[in-house]
Amino acid sequence: MSNVFKLKTKANVGVTTSVVYTVPAATTTTVIGITLANTSGSSINVGVGVSRVSADSVRLLKDAPIPQGSTLEFMQGNKIVLEATDIITVVSDTASSLDASITILELT
């Protein structure tokens, strides 16, 4: 079994929900942290979700405000375990206003 730490990123996220990470086949992933950065000139509201083929899709964060020029470190000290084909998504209420970084550990 192989364990690999990775960083997944998505720049310029806007009002259309964007996929940041999809768990590969035959892999289990632990999400260690999510950092969201406001790159716009005003305050934004953001969301993070997990989409699943084999179970309910859920929101991990909904309409969380991030002031201009600030970041939100989401999941401090918490972990989420994802299964193969699970997807992490992000969205902002403002076009091209959000950069997302996700730190993960893949187990294959």
Provide a brief overview of the structure.
The chain is mainly β and 108 residues long.
Shape, per Cα inertia axes: globular
Q: What is the C-level CATH assignment?
A: Mainly Beta
Beta-strand residue percentage: over 45%
Helical fraction equals: under 10%
Q: Which CATH architecture is right?
A: Sandwich
User: What number of structural domains do the residues give?
Assistant: 1
Task: Describe the structure using short key phrases.
108 residues; Jelly Rolls; mainly beta; 4-stranded antiparallel β-sheet; globular; 9 strands; 5-stranded antiparallel β-sheet
Account of the protein in words:
- The protein is mainly β and 108 residues long.
- It has one domain: Jelly Rolls.
- The protein is 0% helix and 62% strand.
- It has no helices and 9 strands.
- The strands form 2 sheets. Strands 1, 3, 6, 7 and 9 form a 5-stranded antiparallel beta sheet that branches. The protein has a 4-stranded antiparallel beta sheet with strand order 2-8-4-5, with no helix packed on it.
- The chain is globular.
- The mean pLDDT is 95.
Write the topology of this structure:
Layout lengths: L2 E11 L4 E5 L5 E11 L5 E8 L6 E9 L4 E4 L5 E3 L4 E6 L5 E10 L1
Antiparallel strand pairs: 1-9, 2-8, 3-6, 3-7, 3-9, 4-5, 4-8
